[in-house]
Specification:
Shape: globular
Helix content: 40-55%
Strand content: 15-25%
Radius of gyration: 20 Å
Number of domains: 2
Order of helices and strands: HHEEEHEHEHEHEHEHEHEEEH
CATH architecture of the largest domain: Alpha-Beta Barrel
Oligomer: single chain
Number of strands: 12
CATH class of the largest domain: Alpha Beta
Structural class: alpha/beta
């Protein structure tokens, strides 16, 4: 009996040690949730101090809507609406050219920890949280085995506008391999807000997404691409690790984690335009 009890104790200790090792090694909210600890405990990713002097070449493509333009499509979003057939051809071209889609976490690890991204890394991002990201874009990405990030306006989710995602659709989008980031609560120009308003908006959006998704959401996209040093400082205070802009370029700097550059894809870009866009930055 004593031997059996000892074996049980050893197995329990080994199991606990393995769970703890997984949490410390992975450091992800998903691992903490799986271990029953909740997303608000355990190891949390942080930006190192000082920030490393490291750069990586990673094109970050910026999409908005993937849909067919109709007479009811708002004029301000027509140029940002890529036809589903064009999007599919662009993704197929990326796959055929050997590009490998990466996540924000992988980019963070490359910038802050120096981890290799391998040949031809690329990020695919969607702004605003349109419902067509789930119905039109994610099936193409899933079919091709590609990853992406969707930056959503948390105040618009399940807000009654059928153009935008609901909470169930957002969770389903994530299950299809689309990483979720914040695009603030109300999509206001952050540079126009007071410090208190800005910090409240960024914190509220992040916490709402984390509460609904069950894990940390430390990724941000600035509405309208509007930001400055004050916005960067408060985004860091609000718990974000990386933030993307609308500034053009592919060189991402670890010393500027809140000023990552992107390449805008429009309705007129097509495959040839995408190839030209990437070639011009090589």
């Amino acid at each position: 009996m004593a031997t059996s009890a000892l074996h049980l104790d050893l197995r329990a200790a080994a199991s606990a040690a393995a769970a703890l090792s997984a949490l410390l090694l992975v450091g992800s909210a998903d691992a903490r949730i799986a271990a029953g600890t909740g997303y608000d405990s355990g190891f949390v990713l942080r930006l190192p101090a000082p920030l490393p002097a490291r750069e990586v070449a990673v094109p970050i493509l910026m999409y908005h809507r993937i849909n067919v333009v109709t007479p009811s499509t708002p004029s301000e979003s027509r140029g940002l609406t890529v036809h589903p057939d064009d999007f599919a051809r662009q993704m197929e071209w990326l796959k055929a050219q050997g590009y490998r889609t990466i996540t924000q976490r992988e980019l963070y690890d490359a910038l802050m920890c120096g981890r290799s991204l391998g040949p031809k890394p690329i990020m695919i991002t969607f702004d605003d949280g349109y419902r067509d990201n789930f119905f039109k874009a994610s099936p193409v990405l899933a079919r091709l085995g590609l990853r992406a990030t969707a930056y959503v306006v948390s105040g618009r989710i399940s807000g009654g506008d059928p153009s935008f995602l609901t909470w169930p659709l957002l969770r389903a989008l994530e299950r299809r391999g689309i990483e979720i980031g914040s695009h603030t609560v109300d999509h206001r120009d952050l540079t126009s807000l007071s410090d208190a308003e800005l910090l409240a908006d960024l914190t509220t959006s992040r916490r709402a997404l984390e509460r609904r998704l069950g894990h940390r959401v430390p990724w941000l996209a600035y509405p309208f691409g509007s930001y400055n040093k004050r916005v960067e400082r408060l985004a860091r205070s609000a718990g974000y690790l990386l933030a993307v802009t609308t500034q053009s370029g592919v060189i991402q700097s670890a010393r500027q984690p809140f000023a990552l550059r992107r390449l805008r894809v429009l309705d007129t870009t097509g495959v040839r335009g995408l190839a030209t866009l990437l070639d011009s930055q090589a």
